[in-house]
Design a protein that fits this description.
The protein contains five helices and seven strands. By secondary structure, the protein is of the alpha+beta class. The protein starts with 8 loop residues before the first helix and ends with a strand.
Length: 157
């Protein structure tokens, strides 16, 4: 789903029971909504959502959050069904990772392996350690997610 179409916590909250029962392990339904966005929680982690009256909301949230493959430790979700293999993320990442900002804005060149590669028409992570998000002093770079025209990439952490 393209970035502008992503649900925000208050939008998700409308689909939840709003009982703040704490059965899911978090203090409120709004906190549960944030847990859904960060993929720390699944819609079915809320026991009340399993009741018949919330079945339409549960089905909608399960479809929305899907089962994208998450790259361990990174918070990157790749929805291979949405990926068209256009390579926009690969090119944007190559340009972004090829430089690093230093102190007062000085740009230094970097020589690192590419993070992404298109394999059989779908994006795949080859060298996650090359990403600026994995550096000793991590940068919260989101250029790959922002450049993806189909919303196949999503950084959730």
């Amino acid at each position: 789903m393209p970035k502008k179409d992503k649900m925000q916590p208050l939008q998700l909250y409308r689909y939840l029971p709003r009982s703040n029962c704490k059965k899911c392990g978090v203090p409120s339904c709004l906190a549960f909504a944030f847990g859904l966005i960060s993929r720390e929680k699944k819609p079915e982690d809320c026991p009340d959502m399993l009741k018949d009256e919330y079945r339409p909301s549960l089905d909608l949230l399960k479809e929305y959050f899907g089962e994208g493959a998450q790259v361990e430790k990174t918070g990157l979700l790749i929805d291979k069904d949405k990926c068209t293999g256009c390579g926009d993320c690969v090119i944007a990442c190559q340009k972004c990772q090829g430089t690093i900002m230093f102190g007062t804005g000085t740009i230094l060149p970097r020589d690192v392996p590419d993070v992404y590669k298109i394999v059989d028409g779908i994006v795949d992570v080859k060298h996650w350690e090359s990403c600026k998000r994995c550096a000793d002093r991590p940068e919260m770079c989101r250029v790959c997610e922002e450049r993806c025209p189909t919303g196949a990439l999503e950084l959730v952490k």
